[in-house]
């Protein structure tokens, strides 16, 4: 597809990958105390602190740390003063994902293509320069106040972006986290299809799969979900909306505390989930636990797998399978005080799904926690 041609939404086909996104470049969290959050991702999750920006590097606006584990790159930032935009964002949302940055070849084309299709501009294409080259970005809004920043670092040889300086004295004990698998957005009741259309029409994604309230419901609550994927399959964004249930759904609880739609969880791939979860638990990461009855049925439901079922149960890992293989996954408790964002750790053995067979058990354990918070 020629990206220079303006494409009317009605002419788009399922295959129109006009953005040519290469991968998720980074996920940028706005938090209340970047130094503490950096320490958490470093010591608990085993991410390597790679770069810093702040007063000492000429950044008068915010303190910021870049952390990496495998190909997963997180940026953690906090405001210095209350008048800063980061402070305003944090005041409303608490800690959370502000930016899901996407690497492209041409930020100008990406911005033109998306804003001409109805995407709301975050900022027009801009260049930041220093001794290491030119760092190019542009941005559009997605759900809530979340941004997709398009990044072109082809002419930038510095550590992350201008004002960032390498961190050299902080080694990390890796937990094996290797790359971002998917990032889920929570949107309001009735808005899922709006955002599915946004990813399709504005960004050229196509729908990979969907789950309705029959797939994802418990006695109390339900949700619906559709998974959007970019052209090369490396960027997957499931979109959740609450569905009618007897009590408040986990998505509504999120929206009550984040106050707008936003990123619900970031799923990170590992090549050895047993080892990763064992290390994360030892480092103090808290995970949701499903009832032990889940494990009684598991070998019959899944069949023979490489991993030991007893260890899987001890670590609280969940297993699901589809036509292409199986996957192992586990979910943390919220990683900040507000019951908003959490992390998923996932290992795939062929399966391309998201753990549909685990949804019911998982949501029942989520509701137990919601009840403890007085929010069910
Ligand atoms: Fe997930």
Bound compounds, each kind once, are: fe (ii) ion
What is the CATH homologous superfamily assignment of the largest domain?
2,3-Dihydroxybiphenyl 1,2-Dioxygenase, domain 1
Measured by DSSP, the beta-strand proportion falls in: 25-35%
Give the CATH architecture of the largest domain: Roll
Shape, per Cα inertia axes: globular
Q: Helicity range of the residues?
A: 10-25%
The number of distinct structural domains comes to 2
Number of strands: 17
The count of helical stretches stands at 9
Read across the widest sheet, the strand sequence of neighbours is 6-7-8-5-1-4-3-2-9
Mean pLDDT: 92
Please give the CATH class of the largest domain: Alpha Beta
Radius of gyration: 20 Å
Unreliable spans: 1-12
Helix and strand content put the structural class at alpha+beta
Notable features of this structure?
disordered N terminus; 8-stranded mixed beta sheet; binds fe (ii) ion; 2,3-Dihydroxybiphenyl 1,2-Dioxygenase, domain 1; alpha+beta; 34% strand
Structure description:
With about 375 residues, the protein is α+β, with helices and mostly antiparallel strands. The protein has two domains: about 25-165, 2,3-Dihydroxybiphenyl 1,2-Dioxygenase, domain 1; about 175-375, 2,3-Dihydroxybiphenyl 1,2-Dioxygenase, domain 1 (Roll), CATH 3.10.180. About 25% of the residues lie in helices and about 35% in strands. It contains nine helices and 17 strands. The strands form two sheets. A nine-stranded mixed beta sheet has the order 6-7-8-5-1-4-3-2-9. Strands 11-12-13-10-14-17-16-15 form an eight-stranded mixed beta sheet. Strand 7 (about 135-140) and strand 8 form a beta hairpin. The chain is globular and about 60 Å long. The model is unreliable at about 1-10 (pLDDT under 50). The site of fe (ii) ion has 6 residues, from strand 10 and strand 14. Fe (ii) ion (FE2) binds next to strand 10 and strand 14.
């Amino acid at each position: 597809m020629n990206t220079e041609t303006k494409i009317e939404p009605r002419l788009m086909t399922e295959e129109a990958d006009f953005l040519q996104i290469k991968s998720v470049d980074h996920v940028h969290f706005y938090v209340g105390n970047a130094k503490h959050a950096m320490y958490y991702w470093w010591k608990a999750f085993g991410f390597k602190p790679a770069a810093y920006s702040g007063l000492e590097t000429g950044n008068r606006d915010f303190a910021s740390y870049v952390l990496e584990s495998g190909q997963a790159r997180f940026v953690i930032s906090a405001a210095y003063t209350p008048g800063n935009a980061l402070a305003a964002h944090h005041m409303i949302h608490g800690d959370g994902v502000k930016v899901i940055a996407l690497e492209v070849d041409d930020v100008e084309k990406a911005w033109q293509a998306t804003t001409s299709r109805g995407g709301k501009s975050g900022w027009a294409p801009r260049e930041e320069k220093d001794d290491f080259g030119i760092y190019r970005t542009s941005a559009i809004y997605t759900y809530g106040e979340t941004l997709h920043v398009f990044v072109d670092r082809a002419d930038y040889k510095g550590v992350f972006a201008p004002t960032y300086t390498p961190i050299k004295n902080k080694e990390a004990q890796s937990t094996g986290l290797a790359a971002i698998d998917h990032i889920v957005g929570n949107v309001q009741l009735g808005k899922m299809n709006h955002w599915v259309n946004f990813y399709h029409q504005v960004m050229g994604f196509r729908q990979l799969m969907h789950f309705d309230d029959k797939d994802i419901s418990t006695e109390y609550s339900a949700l619906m979900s559709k998974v959007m994927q970019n052209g090369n399959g490396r960027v997957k964004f499931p979109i959740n909306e609450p569905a009618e249930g007897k009590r408040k759904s986990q998505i509504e609880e999120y929206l009550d505390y984040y106050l707008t739609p936003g990123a619900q969880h970031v799923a990170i791939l590992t090549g050895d989930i047993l080892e990763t979860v064992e290390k994360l638990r030892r480092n103090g990461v808290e995970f949701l636990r499903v009832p032990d009855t889940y494990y009684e049925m598991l070998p019959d439901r899944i069949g023979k797998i490489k991993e030991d079922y007893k260890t899987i149960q001890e670590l609280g890992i969940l297993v699901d399978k589809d036509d292409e293989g199986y996957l192992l996954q586990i979910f943390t408790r919220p990683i900040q005080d507000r019951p908003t964002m959490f992390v998923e750790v996932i290992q795939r053995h062929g399966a391309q799904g998201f753990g549909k067979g685990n949804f019911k058990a998982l949501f029942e354990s989520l509701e137990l926690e919601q009840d403890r918070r007085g929010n069910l």
